[in-house]
Amino acid sequence: MIGVGPIAAALLIDPGAHSMFGGASTQASHIEWLYWLIFWICFVVYVLVIAAFTRAGARNYRGDPGMLPVLPKDEAGDRRAGWFVGTAVVVTILTLFFVLVETVITGKKVESATTSKNPVTINVIGHQWWWEVIYPNPQADQTVTTANEIHVPVGKPVVILTNSADVIHSFWPPNINGKRDLLPGYSSAFWFQVDKPGIYRGQCAEFCGLQHAHMGFSIIAESPEQFAQWQQNQVKPAGDPTDPEAQRGKQVFLTHACIMCHTVRGTDAGSRFGPDLTHLASRQMIAAETLPNTRGAVAGWIVDPQRIKPGTQMSPNPLAPDDLQAVITYLQTLQ
Amino acid sequence: MAVSEPIAVAPVGAAERLEQTWRQPPGFWGWFKNTHHTAIGVRFMVTSFIFLILGGILAALMRFQLSRPENNLMGPDFYNQTFSMHGSTMIFLFAVPMMFQGFGVYVVPLMCGARNIAFPRLNAFSFYIYVGGGLLLWIGYLLNTGVDTGWFSYVTLSGPQFSPGKRVDFWAQMITFTEVSALGVAICIATTILRHRAPGMTLNRMPILLWEKLTISMAVIFAMPAVMVVSSMLLMDRTVGTHFFNPAEGGDVLLYQHLFWFFGHPEVYIIFLPGTAIVSTTVAVFARRHIFGYVPIVVSVVATGFLGFSVWVHHMFATGIPQISESFFTAASLMIVVPTAVQFYCWVTTIWRGKLQMKLPMLWIYGFFFVFLIGGLSGVMLASVPVDWQVHDTFFVVAHFHYVLIGGALFPMFAGLYFWIPKMMGRMMDDMLGKVHFWLFFVGFNLTFFTMHFLGLHGMPRRVYTYLPEMHWGTLNALSTSGVALMSLGVIVFIVNFFQSRASGELAGDNPWAAGSLDWATPSPPPSYNFLEPPTVNGREALWEALPNQPIVGGLRDDVREVLITHSLDAEPEYKEEDPGPSIWPFITSIVVGIVFVESIFTPWAIAWGAAPVGAALIAWMWPKGSRPLRRRVEEKWSV
Asked: Does residue A232 belong to any structural domain of this protein?
């Protein structure tokens, strides 16, 4: 039953890009191996123990309606039973010790990346309810700031330095590694190395308030060349739009509530309260991986974010229809 | 060997005089004055069963919301209140009050052969203060002031900055109410076990259930203060502007988690050990054989109580603590498997060598074996740090702890109810309806919770009010929700069975299961004085090993509420003491204390001005009554 369970479940669920069984990194693969090892040990134990209880019950089963007299004490039988229980306890302890040793070994393997030299360093800061992503650089103007979509190069060690701006969140990309809490007041280093290119989803795993359910992110693993190219593009400030509607959109952006929370580098918008929008158009999703980055979705999000994510920090923006269209056109130029 | 026989013939008229002396006060106000442990025990059970149903309704609401992606049954605010209320209700208002207080208060004095629990007024007070906590939390919920930060209410989310309003304060004060209640009962039960045992019931003859209750009482006494401290610190952060948990002012968010789980993990054993106590008791009765491995089981129980305090960090593996500490807590968490395994092996051996009689309680115990074991084994997976990094805070954990808590507490609870309800109400429960109840509940439970393992492994986090259709979690969630209907139907069958059997069930008699412990040596339901002639004990199963002329305790007066105090180790009679008798003051004190607790949510000065009325109520409670001749302890040596 249990053995075929995961297979049946795998048919019901798409293991795809958000599952601990789709390991795309050495870390996730080690953990998956350990999981199956312990799973099969537990499976065997379950079958044996339940078989013993079933047999024990069926052996001398009595359907009598009344209660039977109590069996007399049997010291020879007690001694034999003592041997059985003693042996079973010893086997249990040895099995648990084996699990402990394998756990420590796998834990060391998962954390062995921490000794790597020259990792890609990324600061991830949890916010209610989105992820601020910063690629720090000693040269301030080379620092990249983005949100929710974390680009990493394949085959290179990556270290995520965690922090939180408000409450506790938990960073969890199941295909890549286990989870790590983002604690306000603590910073910790979380290492991994992605081996297979692809887009892997992750989600906040520590309850963090109203929109905990819609606090996704993705890890986009690409070749080192693509990653370098992406990074070069992200470093650039936003260019001036040439299209007249986009130009008008920029004016709307800078004269409405948008500027109160968002940054678009290269313009007067420099607030850090919400996600950095300098290269918004290069992202695939918006609202912490809740909506696709399309004209319609962006329009819906700007006008009434409270309907899509009730409780989100972004306030509704009842823009005039042509202003709204202009802003979206402008945002789409932010490649 | 004698199974159960009346131990002696009492003098004519003694029963009437005892009934007069130990009479439970009648009438409306009498209800509030009553301090007899059977009445208070039943009240704990009924009240916590009501909270079980309320918590279950919340669970059903959550399951309906999650039955399909982007469901609009409820918004995030109501969902967050609902799941937080579900957890808080089930842990603080159902599981501990039912498994520890309810069964403990009812069964322990009977099993000790005592006429009442020790400190009966404190016991009654503990009941009212528990009801106060439950009312506070639920009235808050109905006024849209239900806690919305989870049953654990981690800072900083529950701090003043991110949870303005009074929701978290209601929760934090509910903790104080219920923990005061648990502490009070722990003192009553531990004292009863140590000082009120029947002569002859030495420590090594104590029924396993009493060992478990003693261990749990100690765990309560050491664990509950931690959560009262942490909830009070949180309350102070919120009301008087301290910064214990505010990182901006040097406070520490991990301190909260350490203190909370230092309580929170022993709490799991406080809920689970009463379950195993019921298992050990019923296995012996229905296998018709002394439990095999009395000493290993007792050692295991006590070891579990101790080890329970050394595993709390496994709730915090994802916080990024150093690997060396994680390995220590993995080792401790795996070690605690051993005592439970010992108990499983002893149970299976007992059944193997016995003649199993599959009566209703035993059916539920078999349900416990099948269900709890899955939870225990998934616990081994969770104890392994790397696996925990993946499945922590996912539906895998939800599945795990429902297998452990429903398996380890609810299944034994129903076994215990089917076992002791005949004692409590004097009539047997209907067998057929009991079986229907079991199968509905068993199938529904597994349908609801087994599916959750897969959801967790495939990435569904806990405490989400909805999920996107692209995640493909819809099918399994719908399947999981469908199990709720079966479980609810099962509980309805139980309630119908209860009322029907109460009206017209078969009469139970003193000892319908031919069991061996002293709780069956008295009529069902027991009279107000419990035992006409307080019994003595000749072996671990008092009734199975009773001598043909087993002595009784003589010399207790029947015109005064006298109880016998025995030595805590060898149960030699030491002296007589007077039971304090009914009083309205525990109730009034609980009202006064409750008002102070509630008022302190709104102003810290309530503690200051509240001290006077609380003090006055306590003085009235303890006021000595001069007329009674035996108020002083009679330090005379006792002979049986």
From this structure: no
Both A71 and A192 in one domain: the answer is yes
Residue A234 belongs to some domain of the structure: no
Domain C-terminal end among A226, A255, A274:
A226
A52 and A171 fall within a common domain: yes
Do the beta carbons of residue B601 and residue B132 sit within 8 Å? no
Check which CATH number belongs to the domain holding A117 and give it.
2.60.40.420
- Average pLDDT across chain B, whole number: 92
Rounded to whole angstroms, how far apart are CA atoms B441 and B493?
10
**Judging by DSSP bridges, how do beta strands A158-164 and A120-127 pair with one another?**
parallel
Q: Chain B contact for A70, CB < 8 A?
A: yes
Identify whether A231 is part of a domain: no
CA pair distance A203, A218, nearest whole angstrom? 8
Cα–Cα distances (Å) from B44 to A178, A190, A226, B96, in that order, read: 42, 48, 66, 10
ipTM over 0.85: yes
Q: Looking at the structure, tell me whether residues A281 and A165 fall in a common domain.
A: no
Residue recorded with tokens 């309630």: B495
Distance in angstroms (rounded) separating the CA atoms of residues A212 and A14: 22
Task: Mark which of A194, A226, A258 sits at the end of a domain.
Answer: A226
Domain count, chain A: 2
Co-location of A272 and A210 in the same domain:
no
* DSSP-based three-state secondary structure for B438: helix
For chain B, which domains are there? Answer: 14-622 (1.20.210.10)
Distance from CA of A152 to the nearest CA of B (A): 21
- Indicate whether A218 and A328 sit together in one domain: no
Q: Could you tell me if B304 and B274 are in contact, meaning their C-beta atoms sit under 8 angstroms apart?
A: no
Half-sphere exposure in the Cβ direction for A233 (13 Å, CA)? 14
Q: Sign of dihedral through CA atoms B110, B112, B114, B120?
A: negative
In a domain, residue A163? The reply is: yes
Q: Helix B120-142 crosses helix B167-195 at what angle (to 10 degrees)? A: 160
pLDDT surpasses 80 at B276: yes
A154, two tokens: 């394949």
Q: What is the DSSP letter of A122?
A: E
Nearest residue in B to A102, CA atom = B384
User: Structural domain of residue A119, as residue ranges?
Assistant: 1-59+67-226
Q: What is the pLDDT of residues B31-61, one digit of tens each?
A: 999 999 999 999 999 999 999 999 999 999 9
Query: Do A217 and A82 belong together in one domain?
Result: yes
User: B457 vs A70: CB contact, 8 Å cut-off?
Assistant: no
Q: How far is A289 from chain B (nearest CA, A)?
A: 10
Residue type at position B623: W
Provide the token pair at A252. Answer: 């709307």
3-state SS, B7-18, equals: CCCCCCCHHHHH
pLDDT digits 0-9 by tens, B97-118: 999 999 999 999 999 999 999 9
Contact B327, A105 (CB under 8 A): no
| Nearest chain A residue to B339, by CA | A89
Are A165 and A261 contained in the same domain?
Answer: no
Cα A314 from Cα A305, distance rounded (Å)? 7
B289 vs A contacts (CB less than 8 Å): 70-71
Are A221 and A321 in a shared domain? no
Best CA proximity match to B554, nearest among B493, B640, B434: B640
Chain B residues in contact with A200 (beta carbon < 8 A): none
